[in-house]
Amino acid sequence: MPRAKKALLTAFNRNLDLVQPSAIRAFDNEVSDIPDILKLTLGEPDFNVPEHIKQAAITSIIENDSHYAASNGTIALRQAITGFLENRYGLKYDASREIIVTVGATEAIYTVLTSLLNKGDKVILPTPIFPLYIPVTLVGGGEPVFIDTSSNDFVLSPEMLKAAIQKYGDRIKAIVLNFPSNPTGVTYSEEEVKALADVLRETNIVVISDEIYSELTYETTHVSMAKYLPEQTIVLNGVSKSHAMTGYRIGFLAGPAELVSKFSLIHQFTITTPTNSAMAAATEALGSNLGQQDTLQMKAEYKVRRDFVYQSMTDLGFQIPKPDGAFYIFAKIPTGYNQDDFEFARDLAHKNKLAVIPGASFGPGGEGYIRLSYADSMANLNEAMTRLARYMAENKHD
């Protein structure tokens, strides 16, 4: 096996020195080899991709749809995306100029931040938040500005936002809003979205609105930030969560054409174009009536699971902001137990074979919490709550 020339070990982008491996993946890997471990760690739907969507991918392959597609995605998929955004959220975009199909929402995050950031630019990140934004910001030369929202039930208030803008002023290039939220499941009401838009409208801050869980809301209807601030907002979404298509790796971004044309440069030089068969499947998912029904059926099952896990953990003494979206529970470790969330999660995994993610993995405000995903069968969730109850009964201390 070759070994790198030692001098090359200092040849990297220096910003990589600021980046740590994903704490979520690292903890998941750490506990995965424990015998009989039951993992509620990763945010991945347990449903299979619906048959009509799989058939669209198969048909694409059989019909030799094997040549380069347009870099920004097939026009059929971009039209399906514009129809989806208009029908579901009242947003109007031009399929030819204002949509880019990305390799998952992950690539959309990378493309937008890499396109925007210059050295020293600041990015507001309301935390706890999906941690991917942090390393992408750092590698791009930007500086994260964390706003801990734990004191406000994990909702960014206009007052919190105004304080950050007053402190950093024109150095703020962008803000990331992820709702429904990973890790908390908390989302924003229409009034809360409008209030944030009113603050941001007075600035030149680009709003990166990650709405990947928009189709998985339970008691409310999702309202996009682009409804009130379309001229500054880049909407990120995709089919991974809504249609259980994580392995197909199809996301998208939507925004004003003048901004999207710049994002397309990074996009085309990074991935050229997404995979044709995956785009065909996503076209069926977003462009057909059956596709919407698929999501409604999954959402109904997630709601049953949410209610069961929420009530079970509440009965055990956990304090939980009741999630109105996504498929996560973000729970405060009760008094009388180890408040170091990494040590709590590690102990739970080894003693009672249940794996959850430590809350500190998601930034300031996550300390002392654990996140678990209820995107699993009721049988597994029942067993998980049994194991958790046993651990709580056996490990409380004064």
Structural account:
This is Aminotransferase. InterPro entries: Aminotransferase_I/II_large, AspAT/PAT-like, NHTrfase_class1_PyrdxlP-BS, PyrdxlP-dep_Trfase, PyrdxlP-dep_Trfase_major, PyrdxlP-dep_Trfase_small. Its EC number is 2.6.1.-. The protein is α/β, with parallel strands linked by helices. The protein folds into two domains: 6-48 and 292-391, Alpha-Beta Complex (Aspartate Aminotransferase, domain 1), CATH 3.90.1150; 55-290, Aspartate Aminotransferase, domain 2 (3-Layer(aba) Sandwich), CATH 3.40.640. It contains twelve helices and twelve strands. The chain has helices spanning 23-32, 51-62, 75-89, 104-116, 133-139, 158-168, 190-200, 257-271, 276-287, 289-315, 341-352, 378-395, and strands at residues 38-39, 99-102, 122-127, 143-148, 172-178, 206-210, 233-238, 251-254, 328-332, 354-355, 357-358, 369-373. Strand 3, helix 5 and strand 4 form a beta-alpha-beta unit. The longest helix is centred in the last third of the chain and has 27 residues, at 289-315. The radius of gyration is 21 Å and the shape is globular. 47% of the residues are buried.
